[in-house]
């Protein structure tokens, strides 16, 4: 739905049916004591060698996420799940099973409330008197991908794999994606927030058909 | 002099020191630094390693259960269910599988897991109908409790 609403620039990506992605997952995590694959595995599995099956199970996928009119926290929650690999039943912290995530339209993220004015991002250059505090607006104007990048970085687990996972995150402020990344994309992650329609996106017929609480008389005048 | 020195020549001396040292060093070969070569340093590190290993056997059970839960959550989200509702509805349907088996099924038997997820989803719907349905709908099928005698 989100892909079609974005217009002709981005063709909709293939969405594999539920559960078919898990059909290729037949091999376990690293060295964990998992049972041997059952002999009653489907006929499709019999034509693959074990090496090919392992390769397909642990292959890295590329996901797309459109951040238009989305809160950066929910965007980050969805990406962190994919970057860590927690969306796979073969997850293990040490088995490096995370995927790539490409986030587009980071320029158009939407903070709720007054966070654009109130949220403060602090940093220190290391030199005396180098404590800098900028509001979310100022940071966003300076670098449109910085807010999403910082949110994802702070949501990832604080271990040595965080930097590797950040390298698998690709942020783009607008709809424009490089050709090679676009060819890699597999599936689009659904947007976490349902974007409400603006008043000018409703047709006049829908506005007229919408139920009214009360109809003011013709000579009604507010004081 | 000969009478005094004979017992000295015949005293018992340690002959298998090499193997006693190797018994300890074999557990330290993958350590870092001199403690993988030098016995005095190695014996201390190996003792600590054994103590940590003993204490970690209790942590391992917690860690593995958390891992199984993460894997089940991932697999059930693929089928549109969240982990708490999946597990609670499976228990309500009297499916007494533990998390280890469900996690292994999720990896090696995806179709079986899909049917488990469908069962949990159906039981969930029956629970909603029973709670909200004013009693006019028939009782659910998977909500029936089977008593094994």
UniProtKB/TrEMBL annotation, chain A:
GO terms for molecular function: mRNA binding; structural constituent of ribosome. Signal peptide: none annotated. Residues 1-29 are annotated as: Disordered. CDD domains: Ribosomal_L13 (cd00392). Its main location: mitochondrion. GO terms for biological process: negative regulation of translation; translation. Belongs to the universal ribosomal protein uL13 family. This is Large ribosomal subunit protein uL13m. The lineage of its organism: Eukaryota, Metazoa, Chordata, Craniata, Vertebrata.
From TrEMBL, chain B:
The keyword Ribosomal protein applies. Coiled coil: none annotated. It comes from the Eukaryota. One of its GO terms (cellular component) is ribonucleoprotein complex. InterPro entries: Ribosomal_bL20, Ribosomal_protein_bL20_C. Keywords: Ribonucleoprotein, Ribosomal protein. Signal peptide: none annotated. GO terms for molecular function: rRNA binding; structural constituent of ribosome. PANTHER family: 39S RIBOSOMAL PROTEIN L20. Belongs to the bacterial ribosomal protein bL20 family. This is Large ribosomal subunit protein bL20m. It comes from Falco tinnunculus.
């Amino acid at each position: 739905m989100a892909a079609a609403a974005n217009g002709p620039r981005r063709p909709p990506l293939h969405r594999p049916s539920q559960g078919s992605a898990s059909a290729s997952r037949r091999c376990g995590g690293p060295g964990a004591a998992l049972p041997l694959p059952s002999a009653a595995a489907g006929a499709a599995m019999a034509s693959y060698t074990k090496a090919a099956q392992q390769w397909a199970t642990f292959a890295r996928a590329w996901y797309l996420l459109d951040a238009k009119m989305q809160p950066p926290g929910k965007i980050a929650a969805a990406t962190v799940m994919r970057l860590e690999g927690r969306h796979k039943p073969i997850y293990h912290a040490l088995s490096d099973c995370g995927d790539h995530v490409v986030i587009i339209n980071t320029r158009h993220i939407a903070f709720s409330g007054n966070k654009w004015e109130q949220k403060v991002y602090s940093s220190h250059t290391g030199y005396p008197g180098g404590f800098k505090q900028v509001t979310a607006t100022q940071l966003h104007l300076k670098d449109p991908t910085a807010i999403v990048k910082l949110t994802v970085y702070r949501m990832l687990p604080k271990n040595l794999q965080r930097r590797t996972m950040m390298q698998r995150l690709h942020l783009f402020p607008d709809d424009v994606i490089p050709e090679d990344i676009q060819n890699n994309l597999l599936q689009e992650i659904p947007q976490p927030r349902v974007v409400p329609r603006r008043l000018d996106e409703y047709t006049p017929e829908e506005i007229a058909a919408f139920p009214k609480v009360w109809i003011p008389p013709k000579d009604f005048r507010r004081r | 002099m000969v009478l005094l020195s004979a017992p000295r020549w015949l005293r018992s001396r340690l002959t298998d020191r090499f193997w006693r040292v190797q018994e300890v060093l074999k557990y330290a070969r993958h350590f870092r630094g001199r403690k993988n070569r030098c016995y005095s340093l190695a014996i201390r590190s190996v003792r600590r390693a054994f103590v940590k290993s003993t204490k970690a056997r209790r942590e391992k059970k917690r860690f593995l259960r958390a891992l199984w839960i993460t894997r089940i959550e991932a697999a059930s989200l693929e089928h549109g269910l969240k982990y708490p509702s999946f597990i609670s509805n499976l228990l309500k349907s009297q499916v007494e599988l533990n998390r280890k088996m469900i996690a292994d099924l999720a990896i090696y038997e995806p179709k079986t897991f899909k049917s488990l997820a469908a069962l949990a989803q159906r039981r969930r719907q029956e629970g909603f109908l029973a709670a909200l349905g004013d009693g006019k709908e028939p009782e659910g099928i998977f909500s029936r409790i089977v008593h094994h005698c």
